[in-house]
Amino acid sequence: xxxxxxxxxxxHNGTDTTERVYRRQLRPVRRSAATAMNEIxxxxx
Length: 45
Known about the structure:
Strand content: under 5%
Number of helices: 2
Helix content: over 70%
Largest sheet: none
Mean pLDDT: 83
Order of helices and strands: HH
Oligomer: single chain
């Protein structure tokens, strides 16, 4: 889910507030998503 979608869901006017409020929570999600993509791409190669 993109930061823009999260912003809309929680009612923020833009992504700045969302990033500031949820920065600590979003960082591990981004990291785990990148790890998952690396594994998928590695398996395909």
